[in-house]
Design goal:
By secondary structure, this protein is α/β, with parallel strands linked by helices. It contains 17 helices and 19 strands. The chain has helices spanning 9-16, 18-22, 37-56, 83-86, 105-109, 141-150, 170-180, 208-225, 261-271, 291-300, 328-341, 362-374, 391-398, 413-422, 462-479, 488-511, 517-525; strands spanning 66-68, 74-76, 93-95, 98-100, 165-167, 191-192, 195-203, 246-254, 276-278, 304-305, 321-325, 352-357, 382-386, 405-409, 430-433, 453-457, 547-549, 553-557, 565-567. Helix 12 links the parallel strand 12 (352-357) and strand 13 (382-386). Helix 16 crosses helix 17. The longest helix is centred in the last third of the chain and has 24 residues, at 488-511.
């Protein structure tokens, strides 16, 4: 995101590259307050080259930058890239116990700002000492060059041993400075008049009870956690610290046709720019299509945080989108690993996988495609069958299945009930079905099919999952004056909405008065401890990680009545 150019870049460009500009003096003859097109083009080229230095550790010509740490370790290229410690936002963070300070242009230019003095007792003879990064003077071009090449901070103190000492020439320094100047946390989209605007999504076919457990609950939670709207600053000689903005959640309603969502999303964003999309629900159960929203978020650089969908294509680029899990993609990888580990005996060429996939079902198609991809190197041919094919056609090929075959069902509850009640259970070596698509609590599979069936299941058994979920959501719901939902599916939805709220609030509080989308994504990655109400047995994020729940298991219908689901084997964490 390109922001305002800070004052320290101008003397850097003038002081460090006077020789380089000498031959081009006529192009710089325009007045300084009206830069020529050539000057603007050169500045943009410098910033682009600086971005490659920052992110990849490489110059425009492809050569790697080199550096040395104090321990004598030589690093180059990607190993020397600034992004590894200072992150894509430039706002830093921590490496183990070491704080990594922000290096955006505006913050480098300004002196460090110590935190407010802390009261409290100290042992005799001890005193608190602020780190040099918050007591230093502002960086000048010469001080920045010295810091990068000699490892001395703006105040003259040696920088931490984590900080490499770079071998950079004047062009490298100019380009890197130009890029740092574009890293801005003061003018994010959706921030206006002391309010940070957010949005959540519902679709026209989302029922009222689902909207209440998702959008209504999310709005109430964020409103409860939001800072107050700041009073206008009166003219005075003081320079008070900037106040964090209040948060306001808008609701964007989309139609039922995902092909029209890109235009609808663009129109909503035009009406009211927002900083991020939080949560979201689509379809009859709130967990329906989402990939058009994902593509919009990635194209616009718009954070899209924890929607309630299982239609996750983990092959799509996902810099700006964070999910509770990989949804059907996680189910597919777990099923593929199970088939590989527990393949029935027989000749390699005799093994076949049959999949039944409904037409026009985004999630089912995504899961089936992921399974084909995971089994591509296994020697198992994968044959797809439409869920709406004639019963006679389906009966004929079901009758041919044997112990060397596997049957996978990517079916919602209606298709699952219809197919399993119209046909006898096949004699396959493996009968696997998605748990997410029909709903974990639906008893849609015909009793005759249940003894051999295994359901992909990313959660604990209900007798452990639901009491824990009720305990965790109950406290948060009570703080908002709301009651737990009456059904397991809606209770899980409430828990996920509360977790999306708490993670967002955690990140926004830490962001404070600075508002940068890239930094917000980095803070979300480290806010996973706030996801206290998810239905998953474990939820963790980290740098670059976009799916919190990584585990999957298979459940079987327990005898003698085959009504209750219980674990059927090991818990898998497939790639």
């Amino acid at each position: 995101m390109r922001g305002r150019r800070s004052t320290w870049f101008r003397p850097l460009a003038a002081g460090l590259v006077a020789t380089w500009l000498g031959a081009c003096a006529p192009a710089w003859a325009a007045p300084m307050d009206e830069p020529s097109a050539d000057v603007a083009a050169n500045a943009a080229a410098d910033a682009a080259a600086g971005e490659r230095l920052y992110r990849e550790g490489r110059r425009t010509d492809g050569t790697a930058i080199t550096a040395e740490r104090l321990q004598g370790l030589q690093v180059s290229g990607r190993e020397a890239a600034c992004v590894h410690c200072h992150r894509p936002s430039g706002m830093g963070g921590a490496e183990g116990s070491q704080a990594v300070p922000p290096i955006t242009g505006a913050l480098l230019n300004a002196p460090g700002r110590p935190a407010a003095a802390r009261s409290g007792r100290l042992a005799a003879g001890l005193q608190r000492q602020a780190p040099a990064s918050v007591t230093r003077p502002g960086y000048t071009p010469a001080l920045l060059a010295r810091a990068l090449t000699q490892g001395l901070g703006a105040g003259g103190q040696p920088l931490d041993t984590l900080m490499p000492r770079y071998r950079l020439d004047e062009q490298d320094l100019r380009q890197l400075a130009a890029y740092l100047d574009t890293l801005d946390t003061t003018a994010a989209p959706g921030l206006a008049d002391g309010v940070l605007h957010l949005a959540t999504i519902v679709t026209a076919d989302t029922p009222a009870n689902v909207q209440h457990a998702s959008g209504d609950l999310l709005a109430a939670c964020l409103s409860n956690r939001s800072p107050p709207i700041a009073a206008p600053v009166t003219a005075s000689g003081d320079n008070p610290p900037a106040r964090p903005p209040a948060w306001h959640l808008h609701r964007w309603t989309l139609g039922t046709d995902p092909s029209r969502w890109p235009a609808e999303l663009a129109e909503w964003q035009r009406r009211q720019p927002v900083f991020a999309l939080i949560g979201g629900a689509s379809g009859a159960d709130g967990r329906g299509p989402w990939q058009a929203v994902h593509r919009h978020c990635e194209a616009q650089g718009l954070p899209c945080i924890l929607p309630n969908t299982v239609s996750v294509d983990d092959q799509l680029p996902s810099r700006w989108s964070v999910y509770f899990s990989r949804g059907v993609g996680l189910e597919a990888s777990g099923m593929a690993e199970h088939l590989t580990l527990h393949a029935p005996p027989g000749a390699e060429g005799a093994r076949r996988v049959h999949q039944i996939v409904p037409p026009d079902d985004e999630a089912a198609a995504t899961g089936a495609a992921a399974l084909r991809r995971h089994l591509a190197a296994s020697g198992w041919p994968v044959i797809d069958h439409p869920a709406d094919e004639p019963d006679a056609v389906r009966a004929a090929w079901l009758a041919t299945l044997g112990r060397d075959d596997a049957l996978l069902l990517w079916l919602d509850a209606a298709h699952l009930r219809r197919i399993s009640t119209r046909h006898p259970a096949p004699a396959t070596g493996a009968l696997l079905l998605s748990g997410e698509l029909p709903g974990l609590d639906a008893q849609a599979l015909a009793p005759a099919w249940r003894p051999a069936a295994r359901m992909a299941h990313a959660y604990e058994p209900a007798e452990r999952q639901l009491p824990r979920l009720l305990r965790n959501t109950g406290r948060l719901l009570a703080s908002l004056g709301q009651q737990p939902a009456a059904t397991p599916a809606l209770l899980r939805l409430q828990g996920h909405s509360l977790s999306a709220c708490e993670m967002t609030a955690n990140a926004l509080r830490r962001m404070g008065s600075q508002a940068g989308r890239a930094w917000f994504m980095e803070l979300i990655e480290s806010a996973d401890e706030a996801a206290v109400a998810t239905a998953y047995p474990r939820f963790t994020l980290g740098p670059g990680q976009r799916h919190g729940a990584q585990g999957i298991g298979l459940m079987r219908y327990a005898s003698p009545d085959h009504q209750r689901l219980q674990p059927a084997g090991e818990w898998l964490t497939p790639p």
